[in-house]
């Protein structure tokens, strides 16, 4: 139990150091653009692939479980839309990014720690925590909502393609279901979750990387811990935010 409080306290102390005022904002801006490209643009491919298959599977599973003729077929499109918007494009994609982006951040910062590059920055008077972590936080909070929007669109299109190509539902019924009873707040809800998940993924992964001790083996262990703890926290905050925003 004391070990948990130790890590929580050290995490918040690191965040205080991260969010201290940047000395050279121009350098931070350039670094943020670089991180947007690495952490965000570099993740579009995996997000698109996963979203297409998620949308297709949701549509086909819904179609195969609604064989009752009394149930209108447009509900298949409505189910695919709401499933992608409410859960899959934010939470599932968040878990995928925890694996890809989280391990990337932890291994990058962890390698810098064990090779004493961070110590060298501290000796030169650079706030290493702020310089290394703050641009990553800003970048993921900025770019991840766009990834969520892309996931929603691609997932719904993937569902349409699966429905039409297999004959599970007509194109007209599917598109009618997408438009039926649309609630705009669902997009806001998904984007709020995405921003929270982006902060969790970045800060938890950076924490484990920043306090890595040892050599290459410990860097790998830090990356694994970053993915595991980020995923658990995403699931926990998903539950809390759902209760707070939709109840």
- What order do the SSEs take from the amino end to the carboxyl end, as H and E? HHHHHHHHH
Q: Into which percentage range does the β-strand content fall? A: under 5%
Uncertain stretches of 5 or more adjacent residues: none
Radius of gyration (CA) equals: 21 Å
Question: What form results from the Cα inertia axes?
Answer: elongated
Helix content: over 70%
| Beginning-to-end CA distance, first to last residue | 32 Å
Give the mean pLDDT: 92
Largest sheet: none
Summing up helix and strand content along with how strands pair, one would put the structural category as: mainly alpha
Please count the helical segments.
9
Number of strands: 0
Structural commentary:
This protein is mostly helical and 247 residues long. The protein is 84% helix and 0% strand. The chain is built from nine helices and no strands. It has helices spanning 2-18, 25-40, 44-64, 74-114, 117-123, 128-166, 171-179, 185-210, 216-246. α6 packs across α7 (171-179). The longest helix is centred in the middle third of the chain and has 41 residues, at 74-114. The radius of gyration is 21 Å and the shape is elongated. The chain starts with a helix and ends with a helix. The model has no long low-confidence stretch (mean pLDDT 92).
Briefly summarize what is shown.
This protein has 247 residues and is mainly alpha-helical.
Name a few traits of the molecule.
elongated; 9 helices; mainly alpha; 84% helix; 247 residues
Map the helices and strands.
Layout: H1 2-18, H2 25-40, H3 44-64, H4 74-114, H5 117-123, H6 128-166, H7 171-179, H8 185-210, H9 216-246
Helix pairs in contact: 1-6, 2-6, 3-4, 3-6, 4-6, 4-7, 4-8, 4-9, 6-7, 6-8, 8-9
């Amino acid at each position: 139990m004391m070990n948990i409080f130790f890590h929580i306290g050290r995490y918040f102390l690191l965040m205080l150091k991260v969010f201290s005022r940047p000395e050279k904002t121009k350098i931070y801006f350039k670094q943020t653009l670089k991180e947007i490209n690495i952490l965000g643009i570099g993740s579009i491919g995996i997000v698109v692939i996963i979203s297409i298959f998620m949308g297709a599977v949701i549509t086909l599973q819904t179609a195969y479980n609604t064989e009752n003729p009394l149930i209108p077929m447009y509900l298949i499109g409505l189910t695919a839309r709401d499933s992608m918007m409410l859960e899959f494009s934010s939470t599932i994609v968040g878990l995928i990014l925890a694996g890809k982006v989280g391990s990337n951040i932890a291994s990058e910062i962890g390698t810098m720690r064990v090779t004493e590059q961070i110590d060298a920055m501290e000796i030169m008077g650079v706030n290493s925590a702020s310089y290394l972590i703050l641009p990553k936080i800003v970048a993921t909070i900025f770019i991840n909502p766009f990834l969520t929007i892309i996931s929603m669109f691609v997932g719904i299109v993937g569902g349409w393609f699966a429905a039409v190509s297999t004959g599970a539902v007509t194109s007209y019924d599917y598109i009618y279901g997408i438009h039926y009873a649309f609630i705009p707040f669902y997009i806001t809800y998904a984007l709020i979750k995405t921003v929270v998940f982006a902060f969790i993924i970045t800060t938890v992964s950076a924490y484990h990387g920043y306090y890595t001790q040892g050599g290459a083996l410990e860097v790998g262990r830090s990356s694994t811990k970053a993915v595991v703890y980020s995923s658990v926290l995403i699931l926990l905050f998903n539950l809390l935010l759902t209760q707070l925003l939709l109840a």
